[in-house]
Amino acid sequence: MTDKDLHARAIALHDSFTHDHHDRRAFLADLTRLAGSAAAANALAAAIAANPAAAAIIPADDTRLKTGTTSWNTANTRKMAGYWASPAKPAGPLPAVIVIHENRGLNDHIRDVARRVALEGFHAIAPDFLSPAGGTPADEAQAREMIGTLDLAAAVQDGAATVRMIKADKKSNGKAGVIGFCWGGAMTNRIAVAAGSALGAAVPYYGPCPDPAEAAKVKAPMLLQFAATDDRVNKTAEPWIAALKAAKVPVQAYFYEGTHHAFNNDTSAERYNKAAADLAWGRTIAFLKKNLA
């Protein structure tokens, strides 16, 4: 087995652990058999997992930006909290972009992504979808467990309400887009369904796609970003893309050759693919600027 094959199989095991069974003992046993020793397995697991201590691309105190935390009401007296970032000296109201976190909740990496969005000339907000459960904990395993127990229908409505909220924000030009990653990619698709014409653009990254029957409810242009080796997600992709096209939704979809699930996450040494991430990011920003101007 080549190193490339070993790493691909290890990532598949990790994805099964984090997205399906959540049994860490079984995951480490399988990874040890694959890697050949417990020490090798632990090193490989650490390289695959996101590193919460990884340096930010855009520092939190970057003087080109203003940032902060905020909260807002959604449906049924629920409240959401989140992080926002905007250019420090905007020429006027800005297109608004919601940045949705992975299955580890709102963490420093997603705050960093929100700052990257803001530097491109947007008012960005990163909601914490674990707000109704008390907010994202520091423990990533606990955050994943909490994500798994969320009322998904209520979370989708929270997302749609956030679209309406940010469109009305005084920093916004009245147009809103959504981007999301992994769990957030799936949520981005669902919000596109739920928000209808209130949403101006949606960019889900490697998120499992909804029932194709929901495609007719989507009114926003869609840019779908997939990892070519991500079989778990990609089996849902083609039916969704076909349904969007049949519903006359403007849609673009890209499958990045040789990439793994979460290839945009630069805090994971094994998953991150800089070339693909940069290409996907350039397409994302151009798409948002075109549709939210």
From TrEMBL:
UniProt cross-references to PROSITE patterns, sorted A to Z: TAT
InterPro entries the record matches: AB_hydrolase_fold, Dienelactn_hydro, Dienelactone_hydrolase-like, TAT_signal
Domain of life: Bacteria
Record's protein name: Carboxymethylenebutenolidase
The Dienelactone hydrolase domain, residue ranges: 80-290
Pfam (any one): DLH
Molecular function per GO: hydrolase activity
Organism: Edaphosphingomonas laterariae
